[in-house]
Structure formats: structure tokens, C-alpha cells
Amino acid sequence: MRHEMRDEQFQTPSLLGNLLRKLHIDIPLFIGLLMILALSFVILYSAGGQEVAMLVRHASRAGLAIGLMAVLAQINPRRFQTFSVALFSVCVLLLVAVAVIGQISMGAQRWLDLGFFRFQPSEFTKISAPMMVAWYLAEHSLPPKPKHVMIAAGLLLVPVLLIAKQPDLGTALLVASSGAAVLFFAGLSWWFMLSAVVVLAASTPILWHFMREYQRNRVLTLFNPEADPMGTGYHIIQSKIAIGSGGINGKGWLGSTQAELDFLPESSTDFIFAVFAEEFGLFGCVGLLLLYLLVISRCFYIAVQAQDTYCRLLAGSLSFTFFVYVFVNIGMVIGILPVVGVPLPLVSYGGTSMVTLMAGFGILMSIHTHRKLLPV
Amino acid sequence: MDRKFAIKDPLAESRLFLSRIVTAFILILFLIVGLVVRLVYLQVVGHEHYATLSKDNRIKISPLPPTRGVIYDRKGRMLAENVPTYSLELIPEQIGDLDDTLRRLQQLLNISEEKIDAFHKLRKRNKSFATTPLLQNLTDEDVAKFAVVRPYFPGVDVYARLVRHYPYADLAAHVVGYVGRISEDELKKLPLEQYRGTDQIGKVGIEKYYESHLLGTAGYEEIETNAQSRALRTVSTVEPVAGSNIYLTLDIDLQKIAYDALHEYNGAAVAIEIKTGGVLVFASRPGFDPNPFVSGISAKDYKALKDSEDQPLYNRALRGLYPPGSTMKPFYALAGLEYGVIDYGHRLFCPGYYKLPNVDHKYRDWKKWGHGMVDMNEAITESCDVYFYDLAMALGIDKMSSFMSKFGFGEKSGIDLVGEVDGLMPSKEWKRRYRNQAWFPGETVITGIGQGYTQVTPLQLARATATLANYGKVVNPHLVQEIITPDFAAPPELRIVPDIPLKPANVDNILRAMTNVVHSQRGTAKLIAKNINYQIAGKTGTAQVFTVKQEEKYNEDAIDFKMRDHALFIALAPVHDPQIAVAVIAEHGGHGGSVAAPIAAEIIDAYLNQTGEAAP
């Protein structure tokens, strides 16, 4: 009896492990994600004014995201490759539809209302755009030739401009960077990157010259939030106070005064990192960054292990874009980047970004778990 | 190289990829270190500073609204000014029981339920730490009453604020317009950072058209407050920049003369300085007092204004559409000369009616027995209808329409006010497109005397008259003379419209005939020629409001006032060197010569007396 019990106890974890492996779930990556998600509940409880209903909604969204991840993990990456062009085309068409409807209703439009449910095509583009670029580049030999780079950049520019026009600069930036990441991982020559940077920098004054004054003002506010202290500048000033007052050790869980006193706006969405920094201090912040780094490392490992060009490029891009998320959000909250609406990945409340991100991780898991074992 | 010949090298590709992944990972590490450095700077180096701000004191940012630009008339008299008033304002965040506070305030200061509702609406839009006005224009007595009990009302205070005031009230309301509270719809479209601390925006008139100039730039203060939200000290201040002051071309003295002269009639008078296009008079009667709109007019008062039969909110000078009647005749006469259809000496017998060949319908002259033998000069002087029926048929609607369009009929003048209307100069194409009907010759006949479809605004009439007096050099009417900012003074940009090529001799002839309208014994406006030592050229007009049936006599006494004809007059003076062009419309005035012309004459006389053209 005793002996058997011990045996069972011993087997349970490995049984779960076997099940997950059968379900094409990558265990190290999944554990990392679950840790970040668990942390998100802890922070959200405090940042959202200890409201349980908010946690329930967050949990249901997390459940949906994990479900989607698991489903995508089952699909063979070959299929993703086959459907890349179709998916991308559908996304662009939906974006055009949104732009047209937005034109008619004379306002900013990001949602497509299908009657029974509404969704943001720009969210799907975050995945379909790198898929498209990866598919295109994988068709040719690497490193890509200038012609192929130009075509890939042109393909990418279509959804980016459509999204930027909505206007949703944050998402446009993420889509652009996901595509650029594919090009980078495909071996885009350093000369090319350097000249692209030079051309961009050189065209700025020309663009500036053609802008109207109110447009210039808007750009200036974007890069200098302090110029608008009652709006975005207020966010920055208050979030710096929250983060700085947290110190090395933090004020402890539920100890955020800035969020509690409603001084920190958006405290449970885009600016949730400020609440975390106030409560858990520098140690907590470094810990969270390490956790993110852990997930990114595992993703990079999956990318390196991938067996064909398409999978490699897609995996590399999805992993890198995840980091861009982290960097842009935290950079904005700590006041070194302009304020664009990018949430802290997997932690911020609301929005569909968590679902998209987990879908991306599902694809990564699919890539990793569908490898053919090659004879050594 | 073509794809066919490109050979994939999996090993090289995978090596390249690995090197890129390593590069990306190093980049990520660098960026994360960057974030950590910044966090150390905030949380270790700056910790004490931020902890102080967070714990004992907090930073609040309060906007400093700019002073709105002042609007002056051409002689520097204030038409829109800012006067200090007291307002009772609440900071919801600092009030424990808001409903209780409001109830107590209501008892103390006698505040209407409507005001409370308005406050709640505003409060939902504002941030909870921002002040929200409850009551404006407090009397000294109210201020004193509140001062006594102030300690019992935390978060409530009396503030001295600058409020817009229009000293000339109804006189200039249709020009200057007014400001009012920003509406929900406007809020969605505004660049919010420019409107912080301001809850007012130009709604109509100059206040709206030049909103961006008048507004100025908001400043702000960073204020350190203690845990009880009491301000301790100002950390930094960015001063607001006042809006630009605006000088109008309007002369409020002349405006008053025109407005008073219209007294019993609804209508409009517009006077334009011919050489500059500056609008001297832009009167629309009845006017309304714009001052109640500033702090929010009550629903009852607004309804009364809106539903009034006289429509005081309606800007007749800018938007009023009237059949121009005989005021069109000089222009059609000029068209006849310019197109070479007739010459100045052309004579015609007027039997009192006009008939188209093979049609029985009689187009009647206003003079039942006719004018007898008339030439163009006499036809304009006596306003003979038959002469112009005949001329219209000779010209045809296409030439009439294209010639009149050049004078600005049927299109906006581009004046610097919002809401101008196009009016209507009919043409074959217009009728086909909008009525889906063919053009009938009979319609050409009545268009020749300014009846039928033609609709003009008083502004268009004045502008066309000024352009005529200017020998075809198109006059662009505008109200703003100068926009004065702290840095520079700029006149507004005028649009450029091509001149109308006219033969000066033809214009001379038309102006001579129009002079006879006023200065000859048979002129329809000879009444105003008395006591002036300069010459006015003009043209009367009487616009039918309803149609007189065939063989029926128009009996002035028998018909209701509201059915009486509109009286019109256009004029320019002095004839030898035209300075001012005027158009007057008196609704249901009956006759242009006896009602509208004297109003125009008063404006002209006052203006020429000012400039010294008219010797006393």
C-alpha cells in the first residue's frame, strides 16, 4: 500500500507532463506565461481598487487566450505557411472595410461590428503581417535580395498605413516592428538597415515642411508629453511619482497610494506598471523584467531549434515583437518614450492584446512541438 | 539573379539566423539594462524626492485659461470685452457628500434646479479634481452671504473670472456673434489641450469664424498641495498667452444709424467701403441680446427667441433670401450693353403690359397705363418693367445667368462669417438638375425684373453694387480689418477674384441712369435727393411676396401687412468717385423709393459726413 501510494505521487507530475506534451504544449514556455499571468491577477487586484468582478473578467479573458493558444498549438506549422497569404489578404480587406466605414461615420474607427460580435482587424494583423513577410522571404534564398526586401517592405506598409490612419499609432508601430523583425532575422544586410535609417532621418524635415501647424503640434506633444501637462503629461508626472516613491523595496502589496487616490489614471490598463513599481519597488521591477526575459529566451530557443526558414523567421519575429511590447510600454510609463497606447503584455487589463499575444505563443508551441526527429 | 537559379543553402541560412538571434538577444539585454538604469534613477536616486511628493504633498496641475482677444470696431470701440465676475465653483473630489452640499447651497443662494442639472452634466465631463462652475455672475450680496459660511463648505469657493460681455447687445449681435459653453459635440472634435481651463467657445459670428485667433494659448501651474488638498506653493508656472485682438471694418455709429432707421421693419442693411471691401454696416433687424448666451441661456428664454415670429436669431443680412425685384435692372441693362444686344439709345413703346408672341398671357408693368416711349435711361429711372421684359428675351437666360454670376449672384461672397448662403441665380442647367424640368420663355421674362426663381441676400446685393461702382473690379466684402497679436499685426488674407471685363463707357451710362433714379424729377427715389450736396446713384426695388392674379388690382390697404411687398434699395455715392455701396431691404415695406431709399440715404450721409465728402 505504502509503496503504491508513493509511486502514484511520483507519477502524477509526469502524467500531467505527458498530457501537456501530447497536447503540443511547451512546458517551460507555458510555465513562464502562467507566472506572468498569476502576477497580473495580484497587481490587478490592487490597481483596480480590489474589485473582484474585474478579476473575474480578466480571468475569463485569460482562459479564452489560453484556449486559443492550445488550439493553435495543435495545428501543424505547414498549415500556417500555406494560409499565410490568405490570412494576410483577409486582414488587409478587413482593414480597408474599417477605413471605409470609418470614413462614412466621420470618426476614428478600429472596430468592425459584425452584429453578433465586434473585433479589431488590426489585432489580427499583428500575427498575419509577420506570417506574410516570413512566407514571402522563405520562398527565396536568404539573405534577401534588395528587390525582395523592397517588396516585403511594400507589403508591410499597406496594413501599417491603414492602421496608422485609424489612428492607432501604437498598433501600427507593433505591426511595423513585427515585419521589420522578420526582415532582420532573414539576414537583411547591415548596410541596408543603416541606409534605411539615414533615409528616414533625412526625410523627416521634408515631411515636417509639408505638415500643417496643428499636425506639427500633435507630433511635438507626442514626443514631449510635458508640453501637455493636463493630458498625457499628467500621466507621466503622476506615474513618475508613483514609481519613484516605491523605492527599492516598494510599499508592499495593496500599498499604492497614487493609484488608490485616483492620482494615477489608467492605473489598471496602460499604466499598470507604475502601480507594480510603487508596490514592489526596484526588486519587483527587476524580477518582472527577468520573468519577461525568461519567456523571451525560451522563445528564441524555439526559434533556433525550428527546422525550416518560415518557422524560424516567424518564431523570431513573434518573440521579438513580444519584447517590443514590453519595452514600449515600460519605456512610456517611466517617461523615456512618447505615450502611445500599448499595454503591458499579459498584465494590463482589458483589450484584445492578451488574446493575440497568446495566439502568438500558440504558434510558437506548434512550431516547437511539430518538429520531425531527424536521424543524427 | 532569378529565383530558378538561386540555390538555397540550409546550413548557411541557419548559421545566419543564429547570428541574428544572438544579435537580437544582446540588443534586448542592452535595452533591459537601459530600463533598469532608468528605474534605478527614479527609485533609488530620486526616491526621496518622489516619496515626499507622494506622501505628504502631491503635485496638482491646474490650467490657467488665456484671456480671450477683444473685438473692436474700426474706431476702436469695444464690441466684445472681458469683464470680471464672481462665480461659485466646486471641486467634486474635495467634497464628501456632494448632494448634501448642493442642497445646502441651494437653500443659501436660491439656485434653480435647472442650474443643478447643468452642473451635474458639466461635472461628469470634468476631472474630479477640476473646478466646475455652479453659479455665475454672483451679486455682491451673494458673495458676502457665502463668505460667512465658507468654512462649512470644503471644496466650494468663489472665484473671480473674466466673462465675455457685449456692450452693444442686439446692435452688433449678428456680426460679433457670441461665445457659449462648449457642447458635447464640439468637445469630441476639439484639440483638447488648447481648451484646458476654458469652457467657452465662439458659437456664431466673428467669435466663431476667428475662434482660433481669439482663443489664445492656455498656461498651467504645477501646485504642491498637502494631504487635505490645500495648495501649499506653486512649483512652476507657464503663463497663458492672451488671444489676438481683432479690429473690425464695422463702424458701430453707422451700424446704429442703419439699425435705428429700420426701426419698425424687419430687414437688413449692408454697407461696403468700395475701395477696400471693408463692411461698414451689417445690420439685421430684429437683433437679440447675445449676453445671456455666454453663461448659458435658460431653455425658456431660448425657446422664446427661437419661436418668435420675427426670428431675431436669423441673420437676414447674411442668410436672408429675397427676390431682388427691380434692383436687378441696372445689371441686366449693363449685360445688354456688354453683350451688344441693345444700345443705350434703344427705344421701346411701353403700353403697360408685355406679351410673348402667340401667347395670351400679359406680363404687366407696375404702371397700369404704361410709360409710353422709353429709352434705357428712362427705363431705369422710372423702373419700366416692359423694357426689361423685352431686354430679357433679347438676352436669353443663359447670358443673363452667366453675367450675373460674375457679380456674385448665386454664390457665397466669402465674407468672414459662418453660415453664408448661396442664393439663387437660375439657369437652364439649374432647372434641369434641381427641378428636372425644361426652362420656359415666360420664366426668362420675369427673371428680367428680378422675380421668379432669383433669390439674393442683402450682402450679395451690396457686393454687386460695389463691384458695379468699381467698374467691374470685384469687391470682396470682409469684416475684419486687422488681427493684432503680441508679435505682429496682420490683416486677414483676401481671396483673389478675377475682374469682370467691362467697358467703362457702358458703366458710365448705367451709373448716369441710376443717378437719375435719385436726382431727376421722374426718378423713383427722388425723395432722398433733398438736402444733399453730392450725388447718389441708386435703384429701387419692390419684391412681390405673393402673386397678383391676372386682371386683379393690387390694393395696398386691403391686404394684410404680412402680404405686402418687400422694399429694396441699392445705392452708391458719391457718383463722381464712389466710396460706399449700400443695400437695404425692409420686409413688407411696400415701396423701395419711400421706405428703403431713405434708410440707405441716412447711412450714406453719415458716412460721407465722416469722411468729409459731404460739406456741412
From TrEMBL, chain A:
<keyword id="KW-0997">Cell inner membrane</keyword>
<feature type="transmembrane region" description="Helical">
    <location>
        <begin position="85"/>
        <end position="106"/>
    </location>
</feature>
<keyword id="KW-0961">Cell wall biogenesis/degradation</keyword>
<dbReference type="InterPro" id="IPR018365">
    <property type="entry name" value="Cell_cycle_FtsW-rel_CS"/>
</dbReference>
<keyword id="KW-0328">Glycosyltransferase</keyword>
<keyword id="KW-0472">Membrane</keyword>
<feature type="transmembrane region" description="Helical">
    <location>
        <begin position="148"/>
        <end position="164"/>
    </location>
</feature>
<comment type="function">
    <text>Peptidoglycan polymerase that is essential for cell wall elongation.</text>
</comment>
<feature type="transmembrane region" description="Helical">
    <location>
        <begin position="313"/>
        <end position="340"/>
    </location>
</feature>
<protein>
    <recommendedName>
        <fullName>Peptidoglycan glycosyltransferase MrdB</fullName>
        <ecNumber>2.4.99.28</ecNumber>
    </recommendedName>
</protein>
<keyword id="KW-0573">Peptidoglycan synthesis</keyword>
<keyword id="KW-1133">Transmembrane helix</keyword>
<feature type="transmembrane region" description="Helical">
    <location>
        <begin position="280"/>
        <end position="301"/>
    </location>
</feature>
<feature type="transmembrane region" description="Helical">
    <location>
        <begin position="171"/>
        <end position="202"/>
    </location>
</feature>
<feature type="transmembrane region" description="Helical">
    <location>
        <begin position="346"/>
        <end position="367"/>
    </location>
</feature>
<keyword id="KW-1003">Cell membrane</keyword>
<keyword id="KW-0812">Transmembrane</keyword>
<dbReference type="InterPro" id="IPR011923">
    <property type="entry name" value="RodA/MrdB"/>
</dbReference>
<dbReference type="InterPro" id="IPR001182">
    <property type="entry name" value="FtsW/RodA"/>
</dbReference>
<dbReference type="Pfam" id="PF01098">
    <property type="entry name" value="FTSW_RODA_SPOVE"/>
</dbReference>
<feature type="transmembrane region" description="Helical">
    <location>
        <begin position="54"/>
        <end position="73"/>
    </location>
</feature>
<feature type="transmembrane region" description="Helical">
    <location>
        <begin position="27"/>
        <end position="48"/>
    </location>
</feature>
UniProtKB/TrEMBL annotation, chain B:
<dbReference type="InterPro" id="IPR017790">
    <property type="entry name" value="Penicillin-binding_protein_2"/>
</dbReference>
<dbReference type="InterPro" id="IPR005311">
    <property type="entry name" value="PBP_dimer"/>
</dbReference>
<comment type="pathway">
    <text>Cell wall biogenesis; peptidoglycan biosynthesis.</text>
</comment>
<keyword id="KW-1003">Cell membrane</keyword>
<keyword id="KW-0961">Cell wall biogenesis/degradation</keyword>
<feature type="transmembrane region" description="Helical">
    <location>
        <begin position="21"/>
        <end position="41"/>
    </location>
</feature>
<keyword id="KW-0472">Membrane</keyword>
<dbReference type="Pfam" id="PF03717">
    <property type="entry name" value="PBP_dimer"/>
</dbReference>
<dbReference type="InterPro" id="IPR036138">
    <property type="entry name" value="PBP_dimer_sf"/>
</dbReference>
<keyword id="KW-0573">Peptidoglycan synthesis</keyword>
<keyword id="KW-0997">Cell inner membrane</keyword>
<dbReference type="GO" id="GO:0009002">
    <property type="term" value="F:serine-type D-Ala-D-Ala carboxypeptidase activity"/>
</dbReference>
<feature type="domain" description="Penicillin-binding protein dimerisation">
    <location>
        <begin position="64"/>
        <end position="235"/>
    </location>
</feature>
<keyword id="KW-1133">Transmembrane helix</keyword>
<comment type="similarity">
    <text>Belongs to the transpeptidase family. MrdA subfamily.</text>
</comment>
<feature type="domain" description="Penicillin-binding protein transpeptidase">
    <location>
        <begin position="267"/>
        <end position="604"/>
    </location>
</feature>
<keyword id="KW-0133">Cell shape</keyword>
<comment type="function">
    <text>Catalyzes cross-linking of the peptidoglycan cell wall.</text>
</comment>
<dbReference type="InterPro" id="IPR001460">
    <property type="entry name" value="PCN-bd_Tpept"/>
</dbReference>
<feature type="active site" description="Acyl-ester intermediate">
    <location>
        <position position="326"/>
    </location>
</feature>
<dbReference type="InterPro" id="IPR050515">
    <property type="entry name" value="Beta-lactam/transpept"/>
</dbReference>
<keyword id="KW-0645">Protease</keyword>
